[in-house]
Amino acid sequence: MANRVYCTYFDHNYLSRGLALYRSLQRHAPGSRLWVLCLSDACHRTLIALALPDIVAVRLADFETADPEVAATRAGRSAIEYYFTCTPAWMLFVLAREPDAEWVTYLDGDLFFYQSPEIIFEELKDASVAIIPHRYTSRLRRLRKFGTYNVGWVGARNDADGMAAIEWWRGSCIEWCFDYVDGERFADQGYLDSFPRQFSRVKVIENPGANLAPWNIGNYRVEVRGDRVVIDANWPLVFFHFQGLRKGLRYFIFNSHRIYRAPFSRLVRNHIYKPYIDELLAIETAVGPVLSLKDAKPHRRSAFTGVGQYLKDRLRKAVTLLFQLLDILTNRAFLVFRGVAY
């Protein structure tokens, strides 16, 4: 098998998710190296202490020393905007240190593999860049303003065409990378729409089993055949994007399907979500209390902005609580008791 190298980033709040990604990748593509940009010192210390094979953990400070142009943007951006800014530069950092790699692929930390990604690379034989669409359902047309493609999987072949695209992306993110829509721009994601127009050998991944997610699962018929989840009878589920998974009400884990008006069948619950949640809980038990499913706190702004904003926040919390109770009553949520999900 050709040398496939992957990279991602997360902090200690997302460590269990990142390790679940790592475990699933090792299970289905043994020996694949996963480079992790550690967004907190606690994350880096834990990964170094675990000394897991085929993980390369890099401190954020060391990455910033290697790329001072990216580091210089930090003061003018929120935490999440700065992390978005780092995405293409992080890919280039890894490419420069993996001279024998054929492909370097960025993966979001909340992905989980159910099959070897080799089926995706079969689509990329003549490509130098790989991007993947959101595939929003018709109900979610309003979200198209955030871009056609999802940053969950972005691949670059280690050649001139692949490098050119990622270098342009890096420069664009240094110039502008904010968490709002500005014309065709949005964070690091909107720039991907320019790839097919500006660069050669860009492949849009066609397999709907790659990056199945709450925002697109409503487009497909999902079945189980033997021990595999299958999409529209022909496509095996390769990886799922668990964006929005969170703990709440102390004992429950909730998903984002209601937010995206997506179906959540017993099959999806038992054959897609439960294996992932079981993996997360096993990691938390094995690695210790530093791991958490809680969303990373640095992404939030805490400044008081007035009575109006306070009332909006209270209303939002009340609506969230109502939906959480509905999810519990309709069996959309997982009850966690003594480290086991029900």
Summed up:
By secondary structure, this protein is of the alpha/beta class.
Would you kindly provide a written description of the structure presented here, covering whatever features stand out?
This protein has 342 residues and is an alpha/beta fold. It has one domain (4-300): Alpha-Beta Complex (Spore Coat Polysaccharide Biosynthesis Protein SpsA, Chain A), CATH 3.90.550.10. It is built from 10 helices and 19 strands. A 7-stranded mixed β-sheet has the order 3-2-1-4-7-6-10, sandwiched between helices. The chain has a 4-stranded antiparallel β-sheet with strand order 16-17-18-19. A 3-stranded mixed β-sheet has the order 5-15-11. Strand 13 (228-231) and strand 14 form a beta hairpin. Helix 1 (15-28) packs across helix 9 and helix 5 (79-97) runs antiparallel to helix 7. The two termini are 39 Å apart. The model is unreliable at 290-305 (pLDDT under 50).
Q: Low-confidence spans: pLDDT under 50, at least 5 residues? A: 290-305
Rg over alpha carbons: 20 Å
Spatial strand sequence of the major β-sheet: 3-2-1-4-7-6-10
CATH fold assignment: Spore Coat Polysaccharide Biosynthesis Protein SpsA, Chain A
Keywords:
four-stranded antiparallel sheet; alpha/beta; seven-stranded mixed sheet
Which helices and strands occur, and which strands form pairs?
Elements: E1 4-10, H1 15-28, E2 33-38, H2 41-50, E3 55-59, H3 60-66, H4 68-71, H5 79-97, E4 103-107, E5 111-113, H6 118-121, E6 129-133, E7 149-157, H7 160-175, E8 181-182, E9 185-186, H8 195-198, E10 202-204, E11 210-212, E12 222-225, E13 228-231, E14 235-236, E15 239-241, E16 246-248, E17 252-254, H9 266-287, H10 307-329, E18 334-337, E19 340-341
Parallel strand pairs: 1-2, 1-4, 2-3, 6-10, 11-15
Antiparallel strand pairs: 4-7, 5-15, 6-7, 8-9, 12-13, 13-14, 16-17, 17-18, 18-19
Helix pairs in contact: 1-9, 5-7
